[in-house]
Each structure stands twice: as structure tokens, then as C-alpha cells.
Amino acid sequence: MDGYGKRILIIDDGTGCRALLEAQLAQEGYAVHTAYYGVAGIPDQVRKRRFDAVIADDHMLGFTGSEFAKFCRMTWPNTPLILLIRDRNSLTDYAEESGAATCICTPYEVAMLLNVLGRVTQPDSTEHASSQ
To answer: Which domain, by its residues, includes 21?
Structure first.
């Protein structure tokens, strides 16, 4: 269980996607918290918590991934953000523009997401790259 003790926040307005990812990460030992969309979907008590990583869809109701990334930088300045994006052609540009630790193009392989999550939650991780 690579994720033991690490707290992950998943933000996705897709109920099925969010639930599936939550179950997959919990199976790997991560302590998973979820929110249903953007800033409005994050309860105050969650905003005050510290997370080891945040995973968010780049297309949420009322928010773009870049807008949400700015919110994350203000709320959790040292927490890596993994954005799940749909446009494979702008993957690298989007990662740099958004300030996310990494962007992963959907659909993705769970093993690859777990690998990326393991890398960005390492204590000395400074990864800022794109993943396919």
C-alpha cells in the first residue's frame, strides 16, 4: 500500500468518476476526501485541511482547470495539483500554464496515475511535468 497515511483530495463533478477514483486510491491506502466541483463544492472544514495532493478535473461547473489551480495555490500553496485534462494536444502547455504539478490526459491507466501520485507526494518532490 504505497499511499498509506497520505491524504488526497479529489475534485470532480462526475459522480461516477469521483467514486471510482476514490475507491481505487483507498484500496492503495490513501486517505481520500472528495468534493463535487470547484471552490463551491469544497466545504470550509476541507479547505482548512492539509493534503498531500489534490486531483481535479479541468472541466468543472463554473471553473476552468487554470482557475482552480490558482485557487489551489492560494489555499494549499505547497500541495501538488494533478489536473485530469481531455485535450492531449495541449498537455505540456496546459501543465506549465496552470501551475499544476502534472497533467494527465483522460482516459488514463490507473497504474500510471498511481505512479504519478507516488512521485508528487514524495517529501522532496518538485515535479512539474506532463503525463500521458
So the answer is: 7-131
